Please model this.
Amino acid sequence: MSVIHLPAEHFISVSDLEIRINGQPRVCVDWFSIPEKGVTAILGPSGCGKSTFLRVLSGIHDQDISYSGTVTERGCRRQGGSLLRYAMVWQVPTVFPCSVWDNLKIPLRKRGIPRKQWRGRMEEQLERLGLARELGAEWPRVRAGKLSGGQRQRLCMAMGVLMNSEVLLLDEPTSALDPAATEGIEEIVSELSRERPVLIV
Model:
């Protein structure tokens, strides 16, 4: 597994990290850093532990995964829970089996955003990610499970932004998309990276 990033202040850094699955060493990282803004790419062959590393970084991992080492966020060593808000978009994007509206209201409700602000905030992100035009005026009632792969990817990104996530983690977001959809995702990632760090496998 190798990492490409631009030199910058370390928003997140990892050192002497060993990730174990069922007690067996799987991934070792001597040193790694993510700048405050921009895109950082993790490259490597299938099965080398890239997705496992994202899971550990985000704190979203199964009980069979354990790790040791140092994770520093905003200059503070992480002890237990993360100091940052991470949004994770998986290779196969996970949407809830309900409407687009009901998917998007989850992060807004969790943040305590007043209901009267929901629609405006949702529409802002849908417009930004190109979904407003594609889904049309009836978007609130569109079933999320009926969306294409690229549309589900963008819906998950919208949920992450609405959650006010400080870090966006993307696990091979374009692996199953056609060239046009891939280009669209790449443009969106570039835009989002101007506001926050994006770590992409």
Summary: The mean pLDDT is 89. The longest strand covers residues 10-21. Helices lie at 50-58, 100-111, 118-128, 131-135, 149-162, 179-192. The longest helix spans residues 149-162.
